[in-house]
Specification:
CATH class of chain A: Alpha Beta
Oligomer: heterodimer
Helix content of chain B: 55-70%
Order of helices and strands of chain B: HHHHHHHHHHHHHHHH
Helix content of chain A: 10-25%
Strand order of the largest sheet of chain A: 8-1-10-9
Number of domains of chain B: 1
Radius of gyration of chain A: 20 Å
CATH topology of chain A: Alpha-Beta Plaits
Strand content of chain B: under 5%
Structural class of chain B: mainly alpha
Shape of chain B: globular
Largest interface: A-B, 43 and 48 residues
CATH superfamily of chain B: Formate dehydrogenase/DMSO reductase domain
């Protein structure tokens, strides 16, 4: 490490994101589309995520304290102005919103991490390096979506009593107390398929890899894929909805159902939600 | 240790001095002999009132409890603090800002007043600087305590390593670590440099192990002309260096919040607001410690009422500045376009944390006006209570910056109310007060709390001033 080296490579420490055609020549940019019209709020995606990513089930008491570790959570919203008794469901029913890390291109969490434990990968993932994290929780404080989960306890000690530890996914590390974690877009699956494709001398095909939540969804509400590949399902939906990564305002009319959450903060998320279509008369 | 200094002054001498008439425009009795100044200050190192030990051991007990809480948290994880997903920081960061803030007035009092030649600072600046140093040490503790993996804290420091891993320089937390480190180092240096002539006096009067300590620390000070002139230049340079630093440190702490996107934090006026709040709480603590030291170490002849009066005036002025900036902060939110920030402001005033908010308004906005009453300014026990209330108000202010924002951030699904910190958090916060008091009391017992050489200057100058008046 010489000073010369540092000065020469200084620009590599700086990141400007996103800019137009950022991923034009890139091989991969992972992105997602969630169709809220198809979502039934069944929580299968959450369950799949727990199984895939070694998430601890924290139990009732800790859940009430807000220590739940659901990377993928189903948020339930009732209609505007409807007060809902506990035992009654209003006529129109609830609306559901699956929420996980939005893998923002200009992620507020990445800027503020003091040790650079969360940073952007070349294929557009917002990665979290557990070994580097010191647990200042600044990323969580600055995340507008509040989708970052902190290991308040040493879950490995009690969350998987013998023989449950045998069902842990060997591709995913079990996190220790004091580190931050969040949805990774099932990075272990992505890396594996990218490695296979590289061995074969090709790119990952559309549909070859998907996340656990998308795989588990019974109504196929979640679509996952490579945005850099114009033939992929995800890229087609993004294009149809006239959404682009670097745009911070989407066109809205009755044919356009797509939107990204908190566009106005210019976080440039990688997840597009398709609005639920409702019959107002019903 | 009691044979260290020869006492030939009766215990009740301070009462005589109290009774003596001090002209109104004088901060200190001009007839105090230099030998008496030496003896009075040196005696504080040796024979404080018994209440010193009561305070010291109470602080030690409190600190031990804090250590126990921290060990419990270290072993079990931060879950024992009852922090949760939106409420990620809790009392730790609030108290961190509180301690950082307290650390500011020492520098203001010593460096700024030194630069503008305000002589009344001379008997009281030493302990204010010590307070700065120790409160910075306490604040640094909170940075460590709130980390999830405190054993990896050195990742935040930019140290050379072969793996080329650096901290993230765009993170305000790294700015924080750097700013606090710089400020701590330079205020320690400032404190020590100003103390060297006094340490030489201690050296000349001490025996045994203390003699060795003071001999080492006084760096061979003989009081020659050359030493004095070098000393003056060095001290002035350090004072000039420290002033901008003091302003920058709390501004940087405020960027922890102002840089983030959360409603109620994303406000341009945060840096001056934080600096004013820092000076405010610092001044209030200086008043508290003034009264405490005056009694415990029998400093009635030096920490006089006219000086206290000036201190109170300064505190009141800063309190008004803080109130003004506070009002600016709320009005920018109120007249601004951010609906969530506005909701959150209303939530602060009417929601779960309304007692915290209105407690702050009472303690920090209403209470300073009692300083206008002569009785409060002259009756020391009352003033002590008032200064403690001001401090408590400033602590509440920091809590109401942190907690309601997390409870009502941009994302509605995470809106929570009724979050309450666990006993572990309160234990660690209480322990930090024990740690600070313990260190401060220990310091006062080992090092001269009043700057002897500068008080002598002051006495000399005042004598000259009176003479000049008589001639005129």
């Amino acid at each position: 490490m010489s000073l010369n080296n540092l000065i020469k490579n200084w620009t590599s420490f700086r990141a400007r994101r996103p800019y137009l055609d950022q991923y034009k020549n890139a091989d991969y940019k992972w992105a997602m589309v969630i169709d809220l019209d198809a979502c039934t709020g069944c929580n299968a995606c959450t369950t799949a995520c727990y199984a895939e990513n070694n998430l601890p089930v924290v139990g009732k008491e800790r859940f009430e304290k807000g220590h739940a570790m659901h990377w993928m959570r189903i948020e339930r919203y009732w209609g505007e102005g409807e007060s809902v008794p506990v035992d009654m469901v209003p006529d129109k029913g609830a609306q559901f919103l699956p929420m996980m890390c939005q893998q923002c291109e200009a992620a507020p969490c990445e800027v503020v991490c003091p040790v650079g434990a969360t940073h952007h990968s070349a294929d557009g993932l917002n990665t979290q390096v557990y070994n580097r994290c010191v647990g200042s929780r600044y990323c969580s404080a600055n995340c507008p979506y509040k989708v970052r989960y902190f290991n308040w306890w040493q879950y490995a000690d009690f969350a998987w009593p013998n023989p449950l530890e045998l069902q842990l996914n060997p591709d995913v590390s079990v996190r220790s107390k004091g580190v931050m974690e969040k949805c990774t877009f099932c990075v272990q699956r992505l890396r594996e398929s990218m490695d296979h494709a590289k061995t074969d001398g090709r790119l990952v095909r559309d549909g070859e890899v998907t996340t656990a939540c998308a795989q588990a969804c019974p109504t196929s509400a979640i679509t996952f894929g490579n945005l850099a590949n114009p033939q992929s399902q995800v890229a087609k939906v993004w294009k149809n909805q006239q959404i682009a990564l670097e745009k911070d305002e989407q066109k809205k009319d009755e044919n356009m159902r797509g939107y990204r959450i908190f566009e106005e903060f210019r976080t440039y998320p990688s997840v597009v939600y398709l609005e639920r279509v409702r019959d107002l008369e019903a | 240790m009691s044979q260290m200094i020869n006492h030939d002054i009766p215990d009740d001498h301070e009462i005589q001095i109290e009774k003596k008439f001090i002209p109104k425009d004088l901060d200190i009795d001009k007839d105090i002999s230099w030998a008496r100044i030496n003896k009075d200050v040196l005696r504080s190192l040796d024979r404080p009132r018994p209440i010193f030990w009561v305070i010291f051991f109470a602080a030690l007990a409190l600190f031990s409890f804090g250590v126990y809480c921290e060990k419990y948290q270290y072993d079990n994880g931060l879950g024992v603090a009852d922090l949760n997903n939106p409420q990620v920081w809790g009392l730790y960061i609030a108290t961190f800002i509180f301690w950082i803030g307290m650390g500011h007035s020492g520098t203001l009092l010593s460096a700024l007043l030194h630069i503008i030649h305000a002589d009344w600072r001379k008997p009281i600046y030493r302990y204010a600087e010590a307070m700065t140093t120790f409160s910075l040490l306490t604040a640094a503790l909170f940075v460590l305590i709130h980390l999830g993996r405190v054993w990896q804290f050195y990742y935040v420091v930019a140290y050379p390593n072969e793996r080329w891993v650096w901290p993230n320089f765009s993170s305000p937390l790294v700015w924080d670590a750097t700013a606090i480190g710089t400020y701590l180092t330079s205020s320690l240096l400032f404190l020590y440099t100003g103390m060297v002539p006094d340490l030489a006096i201690c050296r000349d009067n001490a025996t045994g192990a203390r003699k060795k300590l003071y001999t080492f620390l006084s760096l061979g000070w003989q009081g020659t002309d050359r030493q004095w002139s070098t000393f003056r230049v060095t001290y002035m340079t350090l004072a000039c260096f420290l002033m901008p630093l003091a302003v920058s440190v709390h501004s940087i702490v405020s960027t922890d919040f102002a840089v983030s996107q959360n409603p109620g934090w994303h406000i341009t006026s945060f840096p001056p607001y934080f600096v004013a709040g820092a000076l405010y709480s610092g001044c209030a603590v200086i008043i508290t410690l003034f009264i405490l030291l005056r009694y415990v170490f029998r400093f009635e002849a030096y920490m006089t009422m006219p000086i206290l009066n000036k201190l109170i005036k300064m505190t009141f002025a800063i309190a008004m500045v803080w109130n003004y900036l506070n009002l600016i902060e709320y009005s920018t939110v109120w007249y601004g376009d951010n609906m969530i920030a506005k909701q959150q402001l209303l939530d602060k005033m009417t929601g779960t944390y309304a007692p915290v908010f209105w407690g702050m308004v009472f303690c920090s906005t209403v209470m300073p006006f009692t300083l206008l009453i002569r009785f409060v300014r002259t009756h020391l026990p009352t003033l002590m209570v008032v200064s403690l209330i001001l401090n408590f108000g400033m602590w509440l202010e920091r809590v109401q910056i942190i907690t309601p924002t997390f409870g009502h951030s941009q994302y509605p699904w995470t809106w929570t109310s009724g979050w309450w910190p666990s006993w572990v958090q309160f234990g660690i916060v209480a322990g930090s007060f024990g740690w600070f008091t313990m260190l401060f009391m220990l310091y006062c017992k080992i090092f001269p709390t009043i700057s002897m050489y500068e008080v002598k200057e002051m006495v000399h100058d005042q004598g000259k001033m009176l003479k000049a008046k008589k001639v005129a």
